[in-house]
Prior knowledge:
The protein has 5 helices and 10 strands, in the order H-E-E-E-E-H-E-H-E-H-E-E-E-E-H.
Amino acid sequence: xxxxxxxxxxxxxxLPLVGCSRAPVSFNGIDxxxxxxxxxxxxxxxxxxxxxxxxxxxxxxxxxxGFTQCPDICPTALSRAVLIRKLLAEKAGQLQVIFITxxxxxxxxxxxxxxxxxxxPGFLGLRGDMQQTREVARAFRVFYDKVxxxxxxxxxxxxxxxxxxxxxxxxxxxxxEQTAEQCAADLSALMKS
Length: 193
C-alpha cells in the first residue's frame, strides 16, 4: 500500500462513526423508561371483554385514569387524545387510547361506552370493581380520592397520561399541561426509536 493511501486510511479511521448508534431521544414528557410500576392491569372494557396489557401487544398505548363526571381534567385529556391521533396521521392506527375509571360506582359499562363514543369510537373505557380499581391505581401510582360535593361527590385524581410502547413497556408520563402537538411529537419519536 502506498504511503498516501495509508495516511488517508489512518485519517479516516480516526473520524467518529456516524449512524452506528442512535442519538438519545429528547421528550417533552417525562421519560420513565424502565420504571418498576404500571406493569399490568386486568379490567373489563366497555365492550364487555376482559383486557390486560398483553391484549394490546404491538400497539402503543395512551392510558389515562379519570371519571365520566369530571368537569374539566378528563374531558380535556380525552379531547387532547383526539387531537394527538389526528396529528399522528397515518400512525394513528398504532395508538390505542385507554380510559380507566376511578369511579366504578357511577361509571357503568354502558356509561363508559357512551362517554368513549363522545370522543372517539376507537377509545376504550376500562373498569373494575372497587378492589380492582384500588389495585390498578396503586400499580400505576395514581392517586384518587372521593370528595363530598353537595348531595353527591366528585373525585380528585392524578392527571398524568401514561404511554406504553408496542412491546408493552411503560415509557412516558405526559403532563396535563402538554399540548397535543408536544404529545404527538413524543409519540412520533417513540414510534421511530
